[in-house]
Amino acid sequence: MQRREFLSGMAAATAVGTTSSSAIDIISNSLMNDESARMTASHFGPLRAFGKNGRFESAMDASELDFFPVSLTQGVVARTYDDTRIAKPSVRKGYLKDGYKSDKSMRGKDEWVEVSWDEAYKLVANELKRVYKEHGSSAIYGGSYGWYSVGSVNNPQTLLGRMLNILGGYTTRTLTYSTHAIRAIMPYVSGTDESGALQTAWPVILKHTELVVIWGADPINTNQIAWGVPDHESYIYFRKLKEQMAKRGVKVIVIDPVYNNTADYLNAQHISVNPTTDVALMMAICYEMMKLGKADENFLKKYTSGAEEFKKYLNGEAEDKTVKDAKWASKICGVSEKEIKELAKVFGSKRTMLMGGWGPQRAHHGEQFHWMLTVLACFIGQIGLPGGGYGFGYHYSDGGCPSPAAPVGSSLALASGKAAGSSAFPGLGAMSIVPSSEGEWKSRDNIAIPVSRILDCINNPGKEIDFNCKKLTYPELKMAYWAGGNPYHHHPDTNLMAKTFEKLDTFIVQDCFWTASARMADIVLPAATEQERNDITKSHTNKFIIAMHKIAEPYGEAKSDYEIYSGILKEFGDKELMAFTEGKTEMEWIKHFYNTSKKKGDESNLGMPEFDEFWAKGYVEFKIPQHAYEYVKQAEFRKNPIINRVGTPSGKIEIVSKKIAKAAYADCPLHPTWMEPMEWIGNKTDKYPLNLVSPHPKYRLHSQLNNTWLRNLEEVKGREPVWIHPEDAKARKLKSGDIVKVFNDRGTVLAGVIVTEFVKKGVVRIQEGGWWDPVLEKDGICVHGNVNVLVPNEPTSSLACGNQATALVQIEKFEGELPSIKVFSQPKFSKKA
Ligand SMILES: Nc1nc2c(c(=O)[nH]1)N[C@H]1C(S)=C(S)[C@@H](COP(=O)(O)OP(=O)(O)OC[C@H]3O[C@@H](n4cnc5c(=O)[nH]c(N)nc54)[C@H](O)[C@@H]3O)O[C@H]1N2
Ligand SMILES: Nc1nc2c(c(=O)[nH]1)N[C@H]1C(S)=C(S)[C@@H](COP(=O)(O)OP(=O)(O)OC[C@H]3O[C@@H](n4cnc5c(=O)[nH]c(N)nc54)[C@H](O)[C@@H]3O)O[C@H]1N2
Ligand SMILES: [Mo]
User: Keywords on this record (predicted)?
Assistant: First the structure.
């Protein structure tokens, strides 16, 4: 049945790709079958790949495992031999000469010296020894955030944590750049981490929902990739939703400052809202619903706590004496009074599902967005009913698609009971932090800092900060080891990062490519790509366990992450090495993970084949149980909120949180509150009048694949595109194709103009992930368009301490000769010093 479903899906998928200009391109070579193709996988989908003479030649979609292959998979081949590959371990010239005492301002400017692996291992091991001895374990930052690749063995970050735990511990991180604010706030509100919660299943939505509100989400773009391997079934459901719009008159409203890929694909009604003002809009909808007598008083009474106090706030009876009506909100959010009143009428008059994305929580006071959206769902009162309520994961990793619970084995453990360093793991097993070998590392007591506070931490050692209703003291960091992430793309305020990192004695980067971060490092270790090693993984939805066959030999002298850490540990001794590998090769770990999984599978009679059979076939498929098609989020809670209480102190959805009230944060009060963000349209100046947003890119995964031909699909004269409204363009005498300077007090980037009504007037859009290409010798301008140069480092609030992704900027035409792009070629090398 699944296969037939899949085949009809493919046909429709192809049709979608050809009829909608901005829908996902499909490069589906699924007919081109070949006996010698071997299974591998990526964040973009499973692949069948061909290698020849040790080289990765080509790849086609693994169509039995992928309902809607996307073009990004082609980037996996393209990146492998790109000019940006790192061939050999490399050390910055000044660092090779002076070690940790070198002139750090030369990072990014110095030439590079290639060294042997032996030299590199010794250099890294000796520096680790020095820092442990002189400053202690908390001086080593191993939090190393980033998306790397898929595979249970070669998770560069778990392995980094494992190595550092064996050696003495390290400073790690908590939460993610994806979900910092939502993950911090929602446990107080609904008692669970809503970013990872199970969504009401798509078949239920297709049957029952009459109004779908897609709020700050762009699922047609962001479901292209998954944290585990995507099977892209969500695209089949979005196509069916489109059919239901025609057949059943289902209405879809997209609320976003951008007419995004999803609005375009569904031809949805678009409410164009000012960035970071949604909370005001939601409050006005609640207020107007109350006035119409449409707020669900029964639901509020039975299932929530704090509604009466919150209503006072809406009615203007609180301290701010402001009535949160449509008129009030309209001035803030740029949506007309009439439209707001219309939304208040239609919300809840039909079966309404609020699908929230995560873009809006990457903003000052970002916590308020999902808190208030949940409160709005309470006013509508359909939580726990089929097709009603809210869900904050339909845009991510095929959220809402019915899936089985796969029998998972354990992944390589962090050798510490208290590391909690990584988030859920894109591999076969869930992260296990219990070591299987004995040793003193079991008791490591690592400090975890909020992931996006890394610069504050380096700048303020010993400072006590507020975080998630607790206090935390920053350690003094002397060294950072980054593997599988690109902080010089992902962190706000890139110029501040460059300056701040100068305080670190040593910065090590382990990556496959000469990314901006690698270029700013002292020691660079070349990692093999996921197609250059064997591994094992699973689809994000648990439908498949997937064999990852080595397709090609590692490029140059690159090694798998597992080999690299083993090499470093060998410098410390056999005991350390043994604790890390437990005497197993990578292939033995792969078998171990599979067999642990099979053991669980056998207990449930799943009929999983022996390892060799699995490895030859390339995958195991799991049946989806019927109940997964019928899942309704919070149905049990609705049935009986006394027995099935949610995990908050009151057991109800908390509109007022006493826990948060107790923390007494000025920037995150006791109930959802409209607070002006630090930079928004409401406080724009003549100097910086445009509100920048930086959503996720269509033709790459963050900065990954930007070093392939895929960038040609969007770039303007080799620069990142900036979308600007026709009226804002006219005022600046700009036309599509012009190169502009986009700037504020934090820095300047060059970008290529696209004039389009797809952005609201006053709003401009640059996607995140463009490689940073600064002219460091001169003015520091990024000539390629890394948007994070412009975004502030300030935290969302004292509660989540999360990252932002919006800013105020100005745009001017760039005059003069266009600087060349250097970041997509090799850096400068020197003969050995
Ligand atoms: N302005 C703005 N900034 C943002 C966001 C935004 O919306 N706006 N979004 C944020 C979000 S949600 C996220 S998740 C972050 C993402 O930030 P990152 O996860 O840091 O971004 P990636 O480009 O995926 O970086 C992963 C790196 O791992 C490397 N890599 C791949 N495979 C391997 C491997 O097998 N071994 C090793 N050692 N390395 C490997 C890749 O080459 C790449 O350099 O960005 C955040 N930053
Ligand atoms: N193609 C592709 N897919 C991806 C990724 C990728 O890099 N490329 N990254 C993956 C990762 S790591 C993550 S965390 C997810 C991210 O998933 P999200 O965080 O949901 O994605 P974004 O693109 O940042 O934002 C979604 C939408 O929010 C809108 N938005 C921004 N600010 C506001 C606002 O203030 N109000 C409203 N109403 N809307 C706003 C944006 O215009 C965009 O259309 O995507 C994943 N999927
Ligand atoms: Mo993310």
Answer: Metal-binding, Molybdenum, Oxidoreductase
Could you confirm whether 674 is annotated as catalytic? no
CA dihedral 131, 137, 138, 141 (to 10 degrees): 70
Of 538, 614, 697, 799, the closest CA to residue 75 belongs to 697
In this predicted structure, the answer to whether residue 36 has a pLDDT above a threshold of 90 is no
CB of 724 sitting under 6 A from ligand 1: no
Q: Please identify, by atom number, the ligand 2 atom nearest to the C-alpha of residue 276.
A: 35
Q: Which of 162-171, 426-435, 537-546 has the lowest mean pLDDT?
A: 426-435
Q: CB-based contacts of 333: which residues, under 8 Å, 6+ apart?
A: 273, 274, 277, 278, 280, 281
**Can you give the pLDDT at residue 778?**
80
Closest CA to 290 of 378, 229, 204: 378
> Which ligand lies nearest the alpha carbon of 563?
1
Q: What b/e string do you get for 238-275 counting C-beta neighbours within 10 Å, with b at 16 or more? A: bbbbbebbeeeebbbbbbbbbbbbbbbbbebbbbbbbb
Q: For the chain, first and last CA: distance in Å?
A: 65
- What angle separates helix 307-314 from helix 278-291, to the nearest 10 degrees? 100
Q: Which atom of ligand 2 is nearest to the CA of 72?
A: 1
Residues 672 and 682: their CA atoms lie apart, in Å, by: 19
CATH classification number, 199-399+647-663, choose in 1.10.1660.10, 3.20.20.450, 3.30.450.20, 3.40.228.10: 3.40.228.10
How far is Cα 141 from Cα 466, in angstroms, rounded to an integer? 20
CB of 260 within 6 A of ligand 2: the answer is yes
Q: Three-class SS of residue 775?
A: coil
Beta pairing class for 506-511 and 251-255:
unpaired
pTM for the full model? 0.94
**One-letter amino acid of 21:** S
**CA 677: distance to chain centroid?**
22
Q: Is 177 in the pocket of ligand 1 (CB under 6 A)?
A: yes
- In this predicted structure, what is the pLDDT of residue 513? 98
Task: Identify the CA nearest to 169 among candidates 475, 528, 424.
Answer: 475
Question: Of 147, 227, 488, 565, which is the active-site residue?
Answer: 147
**Total residue count of the chain as it appears in this document:** 833
Query: What gap in Å lies between CA 46 and CA 544, rounded to an integer?
Result: 10
Q: Residue 538 forms beta bridges with which residues? A: 545
DSSP 642: T
Both tokens of residue 535?
């591994």
Distance 626 CA to ligand 1 centre (A): 36
Is the CB of 699 within 6 Å of ligand 2?
no
Rounded Cα distance between 376 and 314, Å, is: 12
pLDDT tens readout for residues 708-731 = 999 999 999 999 999 999 999 999
User: Which mutation among 43, 513, 768 tests ligand 1's pocket best, with the greatest number of atoms within 8 A of CB?
Assistant: 768
**Which atom of ligand 2 is found nearest the CA of 261?**
44
User: Quick check: 633 and 391 in contact, CB under 8 A?
Assistant: yes
CA of 487 to the centre of ligand 1 (A): 8
| Domain boundaries along the sequence of the chain | 3-80, 199-399+647-663, 681-813
**β-bridge partners, 390:** 354
Would you identify the CATH topology of the domain 681-813? Barwin-like endoglucanases (2.40.40)
The structure tokens 């190169």 sit at: 739
Whether the CB of 325 sits within 6 Å of ligand 2: no
Nearest in space to 395 (alpha carbons), one of 268, 266, 273, 234: 234
Strand pairing class (448-450; 172-174): parallel
Active site residue 147: yes
* pLDDT value of position 424: 39
